[in-house]
Automatic annotation (TrEMBL):
Taxonomic classification: Bacteria, Bacillati, Actinomycetota, Actinomycetes, Kitasatosporales
Domain of life: Bacteria
Keyword match Nuclease: no
Main location: other
Annotated protein name in UniProt: ABC transporter substrate-binding protein
CDD domains: PBP2_NikA_DppA_OppA_like_20
Length: 525
């Protein structure tokens, strides 16, 4: 999930900083009757229909829809949510059964039964949006409803990661009466079965969530209502936080604003910081005559200075990344550093001249203006500077807002383009599988049979994910050699809030999606 910022998980914690002298950001509190908690983010949904989205829209889905499995606070593996229980019923990881909770209903009162689950999964594959979540269901052969409460998933190959897939918001359960089987829903109305229902929605501006009284699931709601406000840039969002117009920010804060919030003179505010698993990377389109050349891609990989990007653009609020699998996950390597080392113009020139390329290579780099934070333009300007200063490249920069940007890369219009990735689930599989194969999350087919037909299938036969390091290390060696995907940096996670808000330290699940129900107002000091 991309498009797509913990005392969050014990293994991921780096620091929890209170910017209010004498006040603990971790103190418990109830929900005071002071109106909805207002949360700011720069990541607006691209669509309200789960069948169409493999991006940051999931943030909203998690709070208004349910999935069979999800992540209760503190969990790092999927647990039953709309389901009462789920398990593989064979030793080959090909048959997965879920039993629903009894008496489940959608927010509008319609029954949530096994038929609704089957409908929700089937329509994802039937509609099959380009770059959409159908790519997550490659191992699914069929799904059937057995009575009102049992759902059976038959897989076409062993896949121990399938429970993780079912826990993604892409697999949100929708009402067959409201969501057509073969087309997307067009209006801005949503009736899920999650902790909240969507009272109103203004595209790109605001989503008003109120408590769903029919909800059954593991979430213990600490508030009755949340309003999410969508901002175009970090500066406007953080100013709204300082001015008391919003209570919390959780994605899209610029480095300058984070540094400012860390200062002790930021009275009345708190900042929680943790290690993240979101990554930023470049995609090379093989349809472009220059980006299709391995020598060109390797020359770019040899020139790019990740440390300079992390330091000069992001002020060390991100870390350089040399692998598509981020640090902290089993299978992480430093393959790009091992192969290319530090930036070196002479080595890059040799890649080109060995293939007979002696002219400056013209490349167009595309980025989105309103998805990954305010530094994105600066990041691409820095990439342009680095590559042109080498004397080997001429770089043209172009950009679009996210909604039209998505259409462009799905149509294969961009020679080189930037993407961010917020994980669907916390496993190395999710940083490799979505980007390879004929139908992937990038809209640029990447046929790599050794990965798709051997290494990933081998890894998915193993439920103990510590035992699949060998497969993921080999897969990453292939990615490094191809240089079709170029990792740049790994993010840190930041939640900033007014000092009367509790829950920021526990509100992000392992996929860094905010569980709005964990937020509350402190009733007393």
């Amino acid at each position: 999930m991309f498009n797509r910022n913990r005392c969050l998980r014990p293994a991921m914690v780096t620091a929890a900083l209170s910017l209010v002298t004498g006040c603990s950001v971790l103190s418990p509190g109830g929900s005071a009757d002071e109106g909805p908690i207002v949360v700011g983010t720069t990541s607006a949904p691209s669509t309200l229909d789960p069948a169409a989205s493999w991006d940051g829209s999931w943030e909203l889905y998690r709070n208004i829809f349910q999935t069979l499995l999800a992540y209760p606070n503190g969990a790092t593996t999927p647990q039953p949510d709309a389901a009462e229980s789920c398990k593989f019923t064979d030793t080959d990881y090909r048959t997965y059964r879920c039993q629903l909770r009894p008496g489940m209903k959608f927010a509008d009162g319609d029954a949530l039964d096994a038929r609704a689950v089957k409908h929700s999964i089937d329509r994802i594959r039937t509609i099959s949006v380009d770059g959409g979540p159908a790519g997550l269901l490659g191992s699914l052969d069929s799904v059937r409803a057995v009575g009102d409460r049992e759902v059976v998933f038959q897989l076409n190959k062993p896949d121990a990661t399938f429970p993780f897939v079912l826990a993604t918001p892409a697999m949100s359960i929708v009402d067959p009466n409201d969501y057509p089987a073969s087309s997307l829903r067009k209006d801005n109305k949503v009736f899920g079965s999650g902790p909240y229902t969507l009272r109103s929605y203004e595209d790109g501006r605001k989503a008003e969530l109120v408590k769903n009284d029919r909800y059954q699931g593991f979430a213990e709601r600490r508030n009755d209502a949340v309003t999410i406000r969508y901002f175009q840039d970090s500066a406007t969002m953080v100013k709204a936080l300082r001015d008391g117009q919003i209570d919390v920010t959780y994605r899209g804060m610029a480095a300058d604003d984070i540094i400012s919030l860390q200062r002790r003179d930021s009275k009345g505010l708190q900042l929680v910081e943790g290690v993240g698993t979101d990554i930023s990377y470049l995609v090379f389109n093989p349809k472009d005559p220059w980006a299709a050349k391995p020598a060109v891609r390797r020359a770019v990989a040899q020139i790019v200075d990740r440390a300079a990007i992390a330091h000069h653009v992001y002020e060390d609020t991100v870390d350089p990344l040399y692998s598509m699998v981020p640090k902290g996950l089993t299978g992480h390597t430093t393959g790009f550093f091992d192969n290319f080392g530090d930036p070196n113009v002479a080595k890059a020139r040799k890649f080109l001249t060995d293939e007979g390329i002696t002219q400056k290579v013209p490349l167009t780099f595309w980025y989105t203006t309103d998805r990954y934070g305010s530094e994105t333009a600066k990041e691409f300007q820095e990439l342009k500077r680095q590559l042109e200063d080498s004397g080997l490249f001429t770089i043209t920069l172009k950009s679009r807002p996210w909604k039209t940007y998505v259409v462009g890369y799905q149509r294969g219009e961009y020679p080189v383009f930037g993407r961010g990735w917020f994980p669907d689930f916390p496993d190395a599989d999710n940083f490799i599988a979505p980007f390879v194969g004929q139908k992937n999350a990038l809209g640029t087919p990447y046929a790599e049979p050794r990965i798709t037909k051997v290494l990933l299938p081998e890894s998915r036969r193993e439920s103990d994910r510590a035992n699949v390091i060998k497969q993921f290390e080999e897969a990453q060696r292939i990615l490094v050699n191809d240089a079709r995907l170029l990792p740049l940096w790994q993010g840190k996670q930041y939640v900033a809030a007014n000092n009367d808000i509790s829950g920021g330290e526990r509100a992000l699940d392992p996929s860094t999606i905010m569980m709005m129900w964990e937020l509350s107002r402190k009733t007393s000091w």
